[in-house]
């Protein structure tokens, strides 16, 4: 191969690598609204703050549960943005002091969801993995897995994927939507936002390809206790 041809080939390869690196870091910000959307942020912030939970976690659960579709229904009977089963919805209604409610109403679902996540985090002493496992598979299963010491290797594939996906989504929401979710203004979360920024591109592309090749956003919770 001639020297000039080799140089041209190296230049082309170099340009391709630069474009790939640039795309890896800059495309997530450009594609976020389409791939990992955020809706109802005012209610997410309002009820997350009311119950003392991270707004990015609430947004991540909604994304995983329904992809922000307020009319979502699962084959198991879960309904609304945060996919509540009727029994859990009734329990949350009593807890927040509502006698009449529509679980398909976005504000109601977010209210119940943020409160439920708070309850789970309190029950499991802030352990997000345990709280998410309880949200998806019920606290009875989560308690059993903790007792058996297998929370890090949950035997239910759906729940294992659920915990993984929500944590990835949370990282994306905590960085790409930090301003919309009021995270930079809250000292409790501002430092975490900066810590997660370096890894957000990796999380974004992971979830991008999982969404592309597999349906990960509508795995309804069983929420069976």
Write up what this structure looks like.
With 225 residues, the protein is mainly α. The protein has 2 domains: 35 residues; 176 residues, Lysozyme, CATH 1.10.530.10. Helix content is 66%, strand content 0%. The chain has 10 helices and no strands. Helix 2 runs parallel beside helix 5, helix 5 crosses helix 6 and helix 8 crosses helix 9. It is globular and about 75 Å long. The N and C termini lie far apart (69 Å). About 7% of the residues have low confidence.
Question: Which helices and strands, and how do they pair?
Answer:
Elements: H1 3-35, H2 41-51, H3 55-66, H4 86-96, H5 106-123, H6 128-137, H7 139-148, H8 157-176, H9 187-196, H10 200-213
Helix pairs in contact: 1-10, 2-5, 3-8, 4-5, 5-6, 6-7, 6-8, 8-9, 8-10
Number of strands: 0
Q: Decide which structural class fits the backbone.
A: mainly alpha
CATH architecture of the largest domain: Orthogonal Bundle
**Quick check: average pLDDT?**
82
The sequence of SSEs as H and E is HHHHHHHHHH
Give the count of structural domains: 2
Strand content: under 5%
Q: Span between N and C termini? A: 69 Å
Instruction: List unreliable stretches of 5+ residues.
Output: 17-26, 216-220
CATH topology of the largest domain: Lysozyme
Q: Quick one: overall form? A: globular
CATH class term of the largest domain: Mainly Alpha
Largest sheet: none
Alpha carbon gyration radius: 20 Å
Assembly type: single chain
Please, how many helices? 10
Fraction in helix: 55-70%
